[in-house]
Amino acid sequence: MPFTPRTPRVVAARRLQRRREREATGRFLAEGPQAVREALGRPRTVVELFGTPAALDRYADLAAAAAGADVPVSEVTDEAVEALTETVAPQGLVAVCQHLDVPLAAALARGPRLVAVLAGIRDPGNAGTVLRTADAAGAAMVVFAGEAVDPYNGKCVRASAGSLFHVDVVRERDPAAVLASARAAGLAVLAATGYGAEDLDDLADAGRLAAPTAWLFGSEAHGLPGELAEAADARVRVPLHGRAESLNLAAAAAVCLYASARAQR
């Protein structure tokens, strides 16, 4: 019989919706076929796959891939999937995954040319969207620094649209340590701020974006802390040619990351 919301393994998985439980177990939930597909593409990440009979039939390739990787595949009721997910219309698949954390030094040792640092970004939707954008622009590493949101928060995982499984995810409580380590690894450190002294287009025209770069992004509400922005090699603003007061975080991050990606190519 399919597992129900009261089945012990479903109950244990549902607890992963709480950060405390995620930290204690080193596990998190990824819901929907896109996230499950990308998670299965990263070896030794998925530890169990839950699916309704209809979803396991519809996404038989994912069920087969999980079984082929010795991942338990468990049938669950619609009610169990609703208990495990946080979306209005769940798609019937939920994977229990291992945390993906990579130590800061190990990630930098791989020689990334483009890095996004999320400094104190607390909104999970914004954080997941910036992570997805960084992946699309070719960044190999995303750092959640300071009091940033948990990257394994359900909304953050969903907003990343699978990109969480493509990049090195680093969590570092000390933003200053991130800057120092990035510089030691040969990266220029650029702070994105609406009040920056340097114009992004001017940096691009001068060829300064072609170097390996770590971009610092702050929260949409408060921006980067002043001391962190001052510690960067340059404080950079995205030029506004119209009458808009500002760009939101995701849009500004996309402009900055793609400017570097273009210059580096």
UniProtKB/TrEMBL annotation:
Superkingdom field: Bacteria
Gene Ontology MF: a single term: RNA methyltransferase activity
Tagged with keyword Transferase: yes
Any one annotated GO CC term: cytoplasm
PANTHER family, A to Z: RRNA METHYLTRANSFERASE 3, RRNA METHYLTRANSFERASE 3, MITOCHONDRIAL
Gene Ontology BP annotations: methylation; RNA processing
RNA 2-O ribose methyltransferase substrate binding domain residues: 29-103
InterPro entries in the cross-refs: Alpha/beta_knot_MTases, MRM3-like_sub_bind, Ribosomal_eL30-like_sf, rRNA_Methyltransferase, SpoU_MeTrfase, SpoU_subst-bd, tRNA_m1G_MTases_N
Keywords: Methyltransferase, Transferase
Family: Belongs to the class IV-like SAM-binding methyltransferase superfamily. RNA methyltransferase TrmH family.
Name assigned to this protein: RNA methyltransferase
